[in-house]
Amino acid sequence: MTTRAATVTWTRANARRIERQGLSAPLAASPADAVAAMLAAHAQVRSAAEMSVGLRLTGGTRADVRTALWTDRTLVRTYGPRGTVHLLPAAELPMWTGALSAVPTGAGPFPEDVRMSPGQTEEVLAAIGDALTGAELTIDELSDAVVARTGPWAGERVMPAFQQLWPRWRQVMHLAGHRGVLCFAPDRGRKVTFTNPGATALDGPAALAGLVRRYLYAYGPATPAHFATWLAAPRSWAVSVFAELAGDGAIEEVAYESGGGGGTAWLVAGDTGFPAEPARGVRLLPYFDAFAIASQPRERLFPGAAYERALARGQAGNFPVLLIDGTVAGVWHQRRSGRLIAVTVEPLSPLTAVQLRGLEEQVERVGAALEGTAELTVGKVTVGPHA
What we know:
A hairpin with a 5-residue loop joins strand 4 (75-79) and strand 5 (85-89). It is built from 16 helices and 18 strands. The strands form six sheets. A five-stranded mixed sheet has the order 14-15-16-17-18. Strands 2-11-12 form a three-stranded mixed sheet. It has a three-stranded antiparallel sheet with strand order 3-5-4. The longest helix is centred in the C-terminal third of the chain and has 17 residues, at 353-369. By secondary structure, the protein is α+β, with helices and mostly antiparallel strands. Helix 3 packs across helix 4 (62-71), helix 6 crosses helix 7 and helix 11 packs across helix 12 (235-247).
């Protein structure tokens, strides 16, 4: 049952997010539709992204995600929110590139003698787009192509990365993804390759309006600060974006009892229906699952001991998490050997018989999504957070 609410509690907001994410019941949809429901699927760890998507689908598997990505091309693996690698629906790539290109960027984390000038940045982005048009290149091949189109300065090894120095031009790879001139292509053996997806970006204001509406539909009620954190954007800029959309009547304020006090947050205009019942059941979410990262306020999703055990210095995603009745109630880890997947789950409080049965079903579903056979152990997780 869904009812209209003048004041939204965190419990009802959380129940709606879980329902829309396909976490209360699997979605009878495609992998691209599931990613759209999440808004974006973090894909730095590819197996975690495949699990995030597969678990949201009726009978979904990692093979379905790979087919959508490399055969059907309904998904794109590229640089998304926060400059990190995500799966995005191909149909929504124009919105994403238009919106991400409109987010203000600072000077960057590198010293002045490492950074590129605005002119050099545009030159490199144009070179990347040109080199990847109609091609699939490894990083070394792309580097050679960029240097050939720009000059030796772009190839100078001055960029600190993973205890080595990368060529100067690589500091703008995420911007190339945001501009829509670079995305990942199928691996060539063990080597990662890149191509140009040929996305034509939507106009910046229209793209931003679309992204805010999509974000609020998936994760609202939310504040400009929540949106800025999720996108890694300046808060003052997010406030101005929300204000403009509110002036246009695209979004509306709602009273939001999110935690230690009341406040206001935002919804898509007219989208004010919420489930009458709280979230129920047991769910397992992998590393960097979109729901765990984007849901706010974080201290409500990770209550009590979960805030210390399941976060890494307040950062969500570094631990796979156990959800019980809509809140984080433990962590888990899986180790694969052939088709056997050993799953260890550490609840933060004893499980009831009903919760244990629900957990066993979830572990079985994890095994099916990863095309293996999963075995459950309830005990201490000794593996640290994912770096």
